[in-house]
Amino acid sequence: MIKDYTYDVIVVGGGHAGCEAAFAAARMGARTLLITIYLDTIAMMSCNPAIGGLAKSHLVKEIDALGGIMAIATDATGIQFRMLNTGKGPAVRALRAQVDRNAYRIWMKKFLENVEGLHLRQGLVENVLTDDNGVVGVELQDKTRFYAPTVILCPGTFMDGLIHIGLRSYPAGRAGEFAAYGISKSLKELGLELGRLKTGTPARLDGNSIDFSRLDIQYGDELPEPFSFTTERFNPPQVPCHITYTNSRTHKIILDNLDKSPLYSGVITGIGPRYCPSIEDKIMRFPDKDQHQVFLEPEGLATNEIYANGISTSLPEEVQLAFMRTIKGLENVRMTRPAYAIEYTYVFPTQLTLSLETKTIPGLFLAGQINGTSGYEEAGAQGLIAGINAVQKLRGNPPFILKRSEAYTGVLIDDLVTKGTREPYRMFTSRAEYRLLLRQDNADLRLTEYAYQLGLISGERYSAFLRYKEKVEREVERLKNTPLRTTEVNQNYLKKHNLGTIDKSITLSKFLARPRVKYNDLIALGLAEPLGDPRAEEQVSIIIKYEGYIKKQEDAVAQFKKLEEKKLPADIDYLQLTGLRKEAALKLNEIKPISIGQASRISGVTPADISVLLIHLTKLTLEV
Questions:
Q1: Cystine design at 377: which of 33, 59, 119, 439 (Cβ 3.0–4.6 Å)?
Q2: Which tens digit of pLDDT belongs to each residue from 22-57?
Q3: Is 407 helix (H, G, I), strand (E, B) or coil?
Q4: What is the Cβ-side half-sphere exposure of residue 51, based on CA atoms within 13 angstroms?
Q5: Core vs surface per residue 146-174: b (16+ CB within 10 A) or e
Q6: What's the rounded Cα separation, in Å, for the pair 95 and 80?
Q7: CATH number of this structure's domain 204-340, picked from the four choices 2.40.30.260, 3.40.47.10, 3.30.420.40, 3.40.190.10
Q8: Which of 353, 380, 376 is nearest to 364 (CA)?
Q9: CA–CA dist 148, 130 (Å, integer)
């Protein structure tokens, strides 16, 4: 077999999942091939030109901590950085970046072209090749075959993609690009159960036709923070966004034309994203609201195109233009690209293991929208884990599985595999039970050790991380063990800055734990030296201020861990267990949970069913 056509890992699809999967596999030393329909659209942002946001920033930070590339690419091509929820606790703070769409994909393509052991290939994959032992490779539309013992499918919305604009539909994976029809047929023949989902994107507008002077303006942060833990010099351009609103005239035009909407005329059968609805859906679901926000986002530095976030639609083009021209500032707007809806095929994710490998086809991994998710960040996180686990399988190592208590990425994958989804899945902070432990600011402290063990980061980066970690731990320990006596503090400073009084000896940590006290106050009072790293100072403050709450969550994790450590044999036929309800038995046989903890999260499995499983495990232990 010719070496040029033989690899360790083949990644199909060059979107955000595919890029992370291919890089992770190659970085770990596997000979890797990335095949995508069109090489010039690698890492294309199909929807809004932004990375991060609520909960999503946690995923980006975790990708970065594990050695991935999304955060680095964002820092290199971002045009506005803004921290959200700054008035709330650290668990729900989130970084969001506007990104230059074209610069991002160009940066990512060039980066991947220079990764050792990674080859890029343009082509349309039609078939997944298998034998009796599992996957063996893929076949292109032109019948060229590439071989590998592991394959990662990351087709995004391209699998049977169908675009809708009004009552007109045409096949495409993204506007102007081919759909992929062979893969879904191949997967169905391999026995996987498939479904249909729908998503959409708003119109792009000519910025020269918008009256920005009449709109609310939103600037980036004065002192922006980068996404990557490795970014040192950071001075990005801060291009503003603008805000406007729909109104009653807008809504009337939309309601008068609902019969032309494929969403409401029965043309679209796929289920759309509940948390990112079209403007038609918003108006129908919330008839009492007289306006909806429209967030105008610049597409990049070298273009005047504007992304109209908030008015995603599949109405006919002339209706789109008519309703947009009723919006303040858009009265004379011109569209450069119309909005559209897209239906696509996905695989029910309960057919996967927690490593993202399919249960019935060894060596075949799935990542991204094919698993029912929406969003670049959710896709990137899955791609990284799939890439890691493809190499782990090659080497005969145990799969790399992040727990729900360790990472948002663990929550994401556990939700998909254990609960499944019938609508596009989006990450929220509310999905994470231990979100105070899983903050965006401490993703490196949680996950960098794994990255080093897996070979995803350099020794130099790991050493820098250890120095940072030691600095934080040493200062926390010093603050906890250093007393602060009343005679050692400037009472005038306390009074001037409303920091309370100190009438008895306390530790420095107790003083810093006060709501208004900041680490800078300790420096100003001569009670601490600058750590030479603002992020380290912030980390120390968070650990001290939230110590009690963090301890409670750590105790909860300890209880959670007990259930996760109770492993379930893979060969149990749950229909044969006495006392287990049939609904639960069927669900358990479908999911094949690896632990009591995972079993307890399956929809339809009750506490009574878990009791039956625990009794069964006890019997097995006694028999041994």
A1: 59
A2: 999 999 999 999 999 999 999 999 999 999 999 999
A3: coil
A4: 34
A5: bbbbbbbbbbbbbbbbbbbbbeebeebbb
A6: 11
A7: 2.40.30.260
A8: 353
A9: 10
